[in-house]
Amino acid sequence: MHQQGREQKSSMVKAHFYELAMRHYANIGKTDKVEVMKILIRKAYKEWEESDELSVVSAEVSIPTHEIENMMRPYLEVDVAESIDMMAKSKSILPLILIMSKS
Q1: Are 39 and 26 in contact (CB under 8 A)?
Q2: What is the CB neighbour count within 10 angstroms for residue 36?
Q3: Residue ranges of the domains in the chain?
Q4: Packing angle between helix 80-89 and helix 65-76, nearest 10 degrees?
Q5: Which of the residue ranges 8-12, 42-46, 51-55, 91-95 would you say has the lowest mean pLDDT?
Q6: What are the distances in angstroms from CA 82 to CA 42, 67, 94?
Q7: What is the dihedral of CA 39, 43, 48, 49, to 10 degrees?
Q8: 15-32 burial string, b = 16+ CB within 10 Å, else e?
Q9: Are 75 and 83 in contact (CB under 8 A)?
Q10: Mean pLDDT of all residues in 18-24
Q11: pLDDT tens digits, 36-63
Q12: 47 Cβ neighbours under 8 A, 6+ residues apart
């Protein structure tokens, strides 16, 4: 599989191309080719899992306790119904919801 001349080929990229090919074969009714692609996709993902392409990435994040307490205080000072209403109208929460709903 050609991957822009790279010496080390990516199994993830290979699986992606096989998935595109499988979709194409499904669209044109080549069910025999779809079955072959399914096998190749499984094999490519297995190669990917066993390769060094996957790695763990982590980052430590620290939020000062006083900042969390300050953010939570208005919600804890009222009853549950009012707290939920406040959350629904919160400008600090709403923009995130709007961004997520557009995705």
Answers
A1: no
A2: 15
A3: 11-50, 65-102
A4: 120
A5: 91-95
A6: 51, 22, 17
A7: 100
A8: bebbbebbeebeeeeeee
A9: yes
A10: 96
A11: 999 999 999 998 888 888 777 889 989 8
A12: 11, 14
The three-state (H, E, C) secondary structure of 38-81, written as one string: HHHHHHHHHHHHHCCCCCCCCCCCCCCHHHHHHHHHHHHCCCHH
Q: At what angle do helices 31-50 and 11-27 cross, to 10 degrees?
A: 170
Q: Give the span between the Cα atoms of 41 and 11, in whole angstroms.
A: 9
Single-letter code of the amino acid located at 9: K
Task: State the Cα angle at 47 between 39 and 24, rounded to 5°.
Answer: 40
Whose tokens are 């006083």? That residue is: 66
pLDDT of residue 38: 96
**E strand or H helix at 16:** helix 11-27
